[in-house]
Protein backbone atom coordinates (compact mmCIF):
# COMPACT_ATOMS: atom_id res chain seq x y z
CA UNK A 1 0.00 0.00 0.00
CA UNK A 2 1.37 3.40 -0.97
CA UNK A 3 1.98 5.70 1.96
CA UNK A 4 0.20 9.03 2.24
CA UNK A 5 2.16 12.26 2.39
CA UNK A 6 1.94 14.77 5.20
CA UNK A 7 -0.88 17.24 4.75
CA UNK A 8 0.93 20.13 6.44
CA UNK A 9 4.37 20.84 7.79
CA UNK A 10 6.94 23.57 7.30
CA UNK A 11 9.65 22.48 9.70
CA UNK A 12 12.73 20.56 8.67
CA UNK A 13 11.44 17.49 10.49
CA UNK A 14 8.14 17.65 8.64
CA UNK A 15 9.92 18.01 5.33
CA UNK A 16 12.02 14.96 6.15
CA UNK A 17 8.87 13.09 7.08
CA UNK A 18 7.22 14.00 3.78
CA UNK A 19 10.24 12.73 1.90
CA UNK A 20 10.45 9.55 3.95
CA UNK A 21 6.79 8.76 3.36
CA UNK A 22 7.45 9.06 -0.36
CA UNK A 23 10.75 7.17 -0.52
CA UNK A 24 11.03 4.77 2.46
CA UNK A 25 14.67 5.87 2.70
CA UNK A 26 16.32 4.06 5.65
CA UNK A 27 18.76 6.89 6.36
CA UNK A 28 15.89 9.35 6.57
CA UNK A 29 14.04 7.02 8.90
CA UNK A 30 17.02 6.89 11.23
CA UNK A 31 17.29 10.67 11.20
CA UNK A 32 13.59 10.97 11.99
CA UNK A 33 13.94 8.54 14.89
CA UNK A 34 16.55 10.85 16.39
CA UNK A 35 14.49 13.96 15.61
CA UNK A 36 11.41 12.56 17.33
CA UNK A 37 13.15 10.74 20.17
CA UNK A 38 11.95 13.50 22.50
CA UNK A 39 8.42 12.13 22.08
CA UNK A 40 9.53 8.78 23.48
CA UNK A 41 11.41 10.41 26.36
CA UNK A 42 8.46 12.62 27.28
CA UNK A 43 6.08 9.65 27.31
CA UNK A 44 8.53 7.66 29.46
CA UNK A 45 8.92 10.55 31.91
CA UNK A 46 5.15 10.83 32.29
CA UNK A 47 4.94 7.14 33.13
CA UNK A 48 7.91 7.01 35.49
CA UNK A 49 5.59 6.96 38.51
CA UNK A 50 4.43 3.43 37.68
CA UNK A 51 7.87 1.97 37.08
CA UNK A 52 9.14 -0.79 39.33
CA UNK A 53 12.60 -2.27 39.59
CA UNK A 54 11.64 -4.78 36.90
CA UNK A 55 10.80 -1.98 34.47
CA UNK A 56 13.62 0.52 34.10
CA UNK A 57 13.13 3.81 32.30
CA UNK A 58 15.70 2.72 29.71
CA UNK A 59 13.54 -0.34 28.97
CA UNK A 60 10.64 2.00 28.30
CA UNK A 61 12.81 4.11 26.00
CA UNK A 62 13.73 1.03 23.98
CA UNK A 63 10.09 -0.02 23.69
CA UNK A 64 9.14 3.52 22.78
CA UNK A 65 11.66 3.63 19.94
CA UNK A 66 10.14 0.46 18.49
CA UNK A 67 6.69 2.04 18.73
CA UNK A 68 8.02 5.22 17.10
CA UNK A 69 9.36 3.18 14.18
CA UNK A 70 5.93 1.63 13.76
CA UNK A 71 4.39 5.11 13.80
CA UNK A 72 6.66 6.17 10.93
CA UNK A 73 5.47 3.15 8.97
CA UNK A 74 1.75 3.61 9.64
CA UNK A 75 1.30 7.37 9.74
CA UNK A 76 -1.27 8.76 7.33
CA UNK A 77 -1.01 12.53 7.08
CA UNK A 78 -4.30 12.85 5.20
CA UNK A 79 -6.27 12.03 8.37
CA UNK A 80 -5.53 15.45 9.86
CA UNK A 81 -3.49 14.71 12.99
CA UNK A 82 0.04 16.03 13.29
CA UNK A 83 2.66 13.30 13.37
CA UNK A 84 3.81 14.48 16.80
CA UNK A 85 0.33 14.03 18.25
CA UNK A 86 -0.26 10.71 16.54
CA UNK A 87 3.14 9.38 17.64
CA UNK A 88 2.81 10.59 21.23
CA UNK A 89 -0.54 8.86 21.72
CA UNK A 90 0.64 5.64 20.06
CA UNK A 91 4.00 5.55 21.85
CA UNK A 92 2.40 6.28 25.21
CA UNK A 93 -0.15 3.54 24.61
CA UNK A 94 2.59 1.07 23.69
CA UNK A 95 4.49 1.88 26.89
CA UNK A 96 1.37 1.41 29.02
CA UNK A 97 0.78 -1.98 27.34
CA UNK A 98 4.41 -2.93 28.00
CA UNK A 99 4.16 -2.04 31.69
CA UNK A 100 0.88 -3.93 32.00
CA UNK A 101 2.40 -7.04 30.44
CA UNK A 102 5.12 -7.12 33.10
CA UNK A 103 2.31 -8.17 35.48
CA UNK A 104 4.14 -6.89 38.57
CA UNK A 105 0.96 -5.69 40.30
CA UNK A 106 -0.18 -8.40 42.79
CA UNK A 107 -3.73 -9.67 42.48
CA UNK A 108 -4.48 -8.50 46.02
CA UNK A 109 -3.43 -4.97 45.09
CA UNK A 110 -5.63 -4.98 42.01
CA UNK A 111 -8.59 -6.16 44.10
CA UNK A 112 -7.88 -3.56 46.76
CA UNK A 113 -7.77 -0.82 44.15
CA UNK A 114 -11.19 -1.81 42.84
CA UNK A 115 -12.61 -1.87 46.38
CA UNK A 116 -11.32 1.61 47.18
CA UNK A 117 -12.51 2.82 43.76
CA UNK A 118 -15.98 1.48 44.49
CA UNK A 119 -16.02 2.95 47.99
CA UNK A 120 -15.11 6.39 46.64
CA UNK A 121 -17.91 6.23 44.07
CA UNK A 122 -20.51 5.00 46.57
CA UNK A 123 -19.71 7.70 49.13
CA UNK A 124 -19.52 10.36 46.42
CA UNK A 125 -22.95 9.36 45.12
CA UNK A 126 -24.35 9.38 48.64
CA UNK A 127 -22.85 12.77 49.59
CA UNK A 128 -23.16 14.30 46.10
CA UNK A 129 -19.58 15.59 46.44
CA UNK A 130 -16.01 14.35 46.69
CA UNK A 131 -15.68 12.32 49.91
CA UNK A 132 -12.94 12.82 52.47
CA UNK A 133 -10.54 10.02 53.33
CA UNK A 134 -12.23 9.73 56.74
CA UNK A 135 -15.62 9.16 55.09
CA UNK A 136 -14.22 6.53 52.74
CA UNK A 137 -12.47 4.81 55.63
CA UNK A 138 -15.73 4.69 57.63
CA UNK A 139 -17.54 3.30 54.59
CA UNK A 140 -14.93 0.56 54.29
CA UNK A 141 -15.00 0.01 58.06
CA UNK A 142 -11.29 0.50 58.50
CA UNK A 143 -9.12 3.07 60.30
CA UNK A 144 -8.13 6.02 58.12
CA UNK A 145 -4.48 5.19 58.85
CA UNK A 146 -5.00 1.73 57.35
CA UNK A 147 -6.66 3.25 54.29
CA UNK A 148 -3.68 5.59 53.88
CA UNK A 149 -1.32 2.61 54.04
CA UNK A 150 -3.39 0.69 51.52
CA UNK A 151 -3.44 3.66 49.16
CA UNK A 152 0.34 3.88 49.33
CA UNK A 153 0.61 0.17 48.48
CA UNK A 154 -1.71 0.52 45.50
CA UNK A 155 0.00 3.70 44.24
CA UNK A 156 1.39 2.16 41.07
CA UNK A 157 -1.80 0.26 40.31
CA UNK A 158 -3.92 3.41 40.61
CA UNK A 159 -1.58 5.43 38.38
CA UNK A 160 -1.52 2.72 35.72
CA UNK A 161 -5.31 2.50 35.81
CA UNK A 162 -5.56 6.29 35.46
CA UNK A 163 -3.14 6.24 32.54
CA UNK A 164 -5.34 3.63 30.86
CA UNK A 165 -8.36 5.93 31.19
CA UNK A 166 -6.40 8.86 29.77
CA UNK A 167 -5.16 6.72 26.90
CA UNK A 168 -8.66 5.53 26.06
CA UNK A 169 -10.03 9.06 26.09
CA UNK A 170 -7.14 10.40 24.03
CA UNK A 171 -7.58 7.64 21.45
CA UNK A 172 -11.32 8.32 21.30
CA UNK A 173 -10.73 12.04 20.86
CA UNK A 174 -8.21 11.39 18.11
CA UNK A 175 -10.77 9.36 16.20
CA UNK A 176 -13.62 11.81 16.74
CA UNK A 177 -11.89 15.11 16.00
CA UNK A 178 -12.34 16.67 12.54
CA UNK A 179 -9.57 16.35 9.99
CA UNK A 180 -8.64 20.01 10.35
CA UNK A 181 -7.55 19.67 13.96
CA UNK A 182 -4.29 21.29 15.00
CA UNK A 183 -2.89 19.53 18.06
CA UNK A 184 0.01 19.76 20.49
CA UNK A 185 1.82 17.02 22.41
CA UNK A 186 2.21 19.05 25.58
CA UNK A 187 0.86 17.07 28.59
CA UNK A 188 -1.93 19.56 29.25
CA UNK A 189 -3.06 19.30 25.62
CA UNK A 190 -2.75 15.53 25.20
CA UNK A 191 -6.50 15.32 25.92
CA UNK A 192 -7.15 17.68 23.07
CA UNK A 193 -10.92 17.43 23.01
CA UNK A 194 -12.25 20.55 24.77
CA UNK A 195 -14.90 18.69 26.72
CA UNK A 196 -12.39 16.26 28.17
CA UNK A 197 -10.08 19.12 29.14
CA UNK A 198 -13.00 20.80 30.88
CA UNK A 199 -13.90 17.66 32.85
CA UNK A 200 -10.28 17.14 33.85
CA UNK A 201 -9.90 20.79 34.90
CA UNK A 202 -13.05 20.58 37.01
CA UNK A 203 -11.78 17.37 38.60
CA UNK A 204 -8.46 19.03 39.47
CA UNK A 205 -10.39 21.89 41.08
CA UNK A 206 -11.94 19.40 43.52
CA UNK A 207 -8.52 18.38 44.86
CA UNK A 208 -7.13 19.75 48.08
CA UNK A 209 -4.44 22.41 47.88
CA UNK A 210 -1.68 19.90 48.67
CA UNK A 211 -3.01 17.39 46.14
CA UNK A 212 -3.09 20.06 43.42
CA UNK A 213 0.46 21.05 44.30
CA UNK A 214 1.66 17.45 43.98
CA UNK A 215 -0.10 17.07 40.61
CA UNK A 216 1.42 20.33 39.38
CA UNK A 217 4.96 19.49 40.48
CA UNK A 218 4.77 15.90 39.26
CA UNK A 219 3.10 16.28 35.85
CA UNK A 220 3.92 19.84 34.84
CA UNK A 221 7.27 20.47 36.51
CA UNK A 222 8.15 16.76 36.06
CA UNK A 223 9.72 16.46 39.51
CA UNK A 224 10.25 13.11 41.21
CA UNK A 225 8.75 12.21 44.59
CA UNK A 226 11.97 12.99 46.46
CA UNK A 227 12.16 16.45 44.87
CA UNK A 228 8.50 17.17 45.61
CA UNK A 229 9.00 16.07 49.22
CA UNK A 230 11.83 18.56 49.54
CA UNK A 231 9.71 21.38 48.08
CA UNK A 232 6.75 20.61 50.35
CA UNK A 233 8.80 19.85 53.45
CA UNK A 234 7.23 16.43 53.97
CA UNK A 235 8.35 12.83 53.66
CA UNK A 236 8.47 11.03 50.34
CA UNK A 237 5.84 8.54 51.52
CA UNK A 238 3.45 11.42 52.22
CA UNK A 239 3.95 12.70 48.68
CA UNK A 240 3.16 9.21 47.41
CA UNK A 241 -0.06 9.16 49.44
CA UNK A 242 -1.15 12.60 48.24
CA UNK A 243 -0.39 11.67 44.65
CA UNK A 244 -2.35 8.44 44.83
CA UNK A 245 -5.36 10.11 46.46
CA UNK A 246 -5.35 12.84 43.82
CA UNK A 247 -5.07 10.37 40.94
CA UNK A 248 -7.84 8.22 42.40
CA UNK A 249 -10.18 11.24 42.53
CA UNK A 250 -9.29 12.27 38.96
CA UNK A 251 -9.72 8.73 37.68
CA UNK A 252 -13.20 8.45 39.19
CA UNK A 253 -14.25 11.76 37.61
CA UNK A 254 -12.99 10.68 34.18
CA UNK A 255 -14.57 7.24 34.55
CA UNK A 256 -17.90 8.89 35.36
CA UNK A 257 -17.53 11.07 32.25
CA UNK A 258 -16.55 8.14 30.05
CA UNK A 259 -19.55 6.13 31.23
CA UNK A 260 -21.86 9.07 30.49
From TrEMBL:
Keywords annotated in UniProt: DNA-binding, Sigma factor, Transcription, Transcription regulation
Domain RNA polymerase sigma-70 region: 40-104, 114-163, 203-251
One Pfam family matching this protein: Sigma70_r4
Record's protein name: FliA/WhiG family RNA polymerase sigma factor
The organism of origin for this protein: Faecalicatena faecalis
